[in-house]
Structure to design on (221 residues):
C-alpha cells in the first residue's frame, strides 16, 4: 500500500509541475542563502503564513527531493483521501489530545520534513493571524529547527508568487523541560517567532516592490 501511495504521489507531482509552473511562477528569496537554501538536511519543521489552500501547492515544490508532510484541517473524507498521497496530517479540531502533534514528532524524528500553518486558519484580510503554539511543542519534542517560509499569495496565470525562506530557528535550551514547556515559555517563544515572520514578510514585500520598480523602470526606457 505504501508503494502505491508513493507512486501516486510522484504521478501527482510530475503531472502537477506544468500547472505549478504556469499558475505560480514562483520567485524565491532568502534571508541568508548561505545559512538556509532550498536544500534541507535531516528533519525540519516548516512554518508558513496562510493565504489559501494553494499555499501548500506553492511550497510542495520548494524543497527539491524532499517529501513535504503537511498538517491540514480535515475538510472531509475526500480531502483526507486526497491528502494521503501527499503526506497530509489531518487535524481534528474537536480533539483535545491533538494527535497531529505526536504524528508530526514521529515523522520529524525520522528525518522527515513537516509543514504547519501556525495561524491555523486562512487570513481573510491579508494580515497575519496570531500564531497557535502547537508548532513550538512539535519542534521541541522532535529536537528539530523551525524554518519560516513566507509567501505573498500572489497566485494566478497572469501573476507571480513570491516566497522568502528564513534562517533556521533553533529552540535548543529555550525551555527547562522541552517535553513539557510552560505557558510562559511558549508565549515568549511564540511572540519572538511571530515577530520574526512579520519581519520576513516586510522584507519580502520590500524585495518584490523593488523588483517591480526596476522592471517598470526598464520598460519605460
Amino acid at each position: 500500500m505504501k508503494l502505491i501511495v508513493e507512486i501516486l504521489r510522484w504521478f501527482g507531482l510530475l503531472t502537477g509541475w506544468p500547472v505549478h509552473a504556469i499558475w505560480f511562477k514562483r520567485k524565491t528569496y532568502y534571508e541568508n542563502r548561505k545559512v538556509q537554501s532550498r536544500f534541507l538536511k535531516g528533519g525540519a519543521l516548516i512554518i508558513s503564513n496562510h493565504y489559501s489552500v494553494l499555499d501548500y501547492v506553492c511550497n510542495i515544490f520548494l524543497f527539491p527531493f524532499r517529501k513535504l508532510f503537511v498538517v491540514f484541517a480535515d475538510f472531509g473524507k475526500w480531502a483526507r483521501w486526497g491528502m494521503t498521497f501527499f503526506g497530509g496530517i489531518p487535524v481534528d479540531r474537536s480533539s483535545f489530545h491533538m494527535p497531529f502533534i505526536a504524528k508530526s514528532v514521529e515523522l520529524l524524528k525520522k528525518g522527515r520534513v513537516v509543514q504547519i500553518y501556525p495561524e491555523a486558519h486562512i487570513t481573510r484580510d491579508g494580515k497575519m493571524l496570531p500564531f497557535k503554539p502547537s508548532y513550538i511543542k512539535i519542534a521541541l519534542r522532535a529536537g528539530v529547527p523551525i524554518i519560516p517560509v513566507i509567501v505573498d499569495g500572489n497566485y494566478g496565470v497572469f501573476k507571480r508568487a513570491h516566497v522568502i525562506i528564513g534562517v533556521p530557528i533553533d529552540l535548543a535550551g529555550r525551555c527547562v523541560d522541552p517535553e513539557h514547556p510552560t505557558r510562559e515559555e511558549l508565549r515568549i517563544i511564540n511572540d519572538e517567532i511571530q515577530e520574526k515572520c512579520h519581519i520576513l514578510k516586510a522584507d519580502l514585500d520590500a524585495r518584490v516592490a523593488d523588483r517591480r520598480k526596476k522592471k517598470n523602470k526598464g520598460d519605460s526606457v
